[in-house]
Amino acid sequence: MHAKTEETRDKAAIEKTAGKIRGRPFLSERRIQARVRELAAEISKDYEGKNPLVVGLLKGAFMFYADLTRHLQMPITIDFLIASSYVMASTTGKIKIHADIREQVRGRHVILVEDIVDTGITLNHLRQNILGRSPESLKICSLLDKKDRREVDVPIDYVGFTVPNEFLVGYGLDYDNRYRNLPYISVFKKSE
Ligand code: IMP
Ligand code: MG
Predict the structure, then answer these.
(1) What is the number of the ligand 1 atom nearest to the C-alpha of 146?
(2) Among 21, 64, 116, 190, which residue has the most ligand 1 atoms within 8 Å of its CB, making it the best to mutate?
(3) Cβ(167) to ligand 1 under 6 A?
(4) How many other C-beta atoms lie within 10 A of the C-beta of residue 179?
(5) Is 67's C-beta closer than 6 angstroms to any atom of ligand 1?
(6) pLDDT at site 85
(7) What's the CA gap between 137 and 111, in Å, rounded?
(8) Which ligand 1 atom sits closest to the C-alpha of 122?
């Protein structure tokens, strides 16, 4: 995309979010798309000759998932999992699975696609859950990694961007279920 077009679109979208999102996007559409292609190339190389089961974690990963998978060079099986976490004081917060993977996991090379890893609680639970179903292998791909906030160690095999401890919205990420459709990622100021 031309820089000018992108700038115009970003400006319009920022106005649309009514002042809650300030300044330039934290990650522009162009930067995200370039990195997503790099990740797809890396994953394609690693899974050459294989047919992995690529599981998108909804809702957050929906946009990243669609962009990533369209650039994968090997045959894949797509599936999704909808889960939510109960926010608790401890690191043992419970995860509820609202809609499970429908494909058989046993014997498959599974790739979990996530939007952002924060404390790591969500992914750790889902990882253990899926490992319990005896996949041939399991790898995790997350667009964003909020490393400083990690409470539970969870191996992330593919990371798009390491990000600081700020609340981010756009490109799948929400605040109160809004802003998920923005094509870029911005810092959200809750107090303003
Ligand atoms: P974790 O279990 O603490 O790693 O939480 C991960 C989940 O929290 C992500 O899948 C997101 O849904 C949500 N989350 C964490 N940080 C952000 C953020 O900056 N913006 C929007 N959602 C976030
Ligand atoms: Mg999420």
Answers:
(1) 16
(2) 116
(3) yes
(4) 22
(5) no
(6) 77
(7) 8
(8) 2
Q: 125, 192, 113, 122: which is closest to 159 by C-alpha?
A: 113
85 CB within 6 A, ligand 1: yes
> Quick check: 35 pLDDT over 80?
yes
Cα 2 to ligand 2 centre (Å)? 30
Check if 117 has its Cβ closer than 6 Å to any atom of ligand 1.
yes
pLDDT band at 189 (very low <50, low <70, confident <90, very high): confident
* Phi-psi region at 49: left, alpha or beta (left = phi > 0; alpha = psi -120 to 50): left
For each of the domains in the chain, give its residue range(s) and CATH number, in order of start.
27-174 (3.40.50.2020)
**What residues have CB less than 8 Å from 124, skipping those under 6 apart?**
152, 153, 154
Count how many residues are written for the chain: 192
Report the DSSP beta bridge partners of residue 170.
Answer: 173
pTM of the shown model: 0.88
Residue pLDDT, tens place only, 48-105:
999 999 999 999 999 999 999 999 999 999 999 999 876 654 555 678 999 999 999 9
pLDDT score of 10 more than 90:
no
Which residue has tokens 């890893």? 117
Clarify whether 176 is annotated catalytic: no
Q: State mean pLDDT over 122-145.
A: 97
Q: d(Cα 190, Cα 192) in Å, to the nearest integer?
A: 6
pLDDT number for residue 2: 59
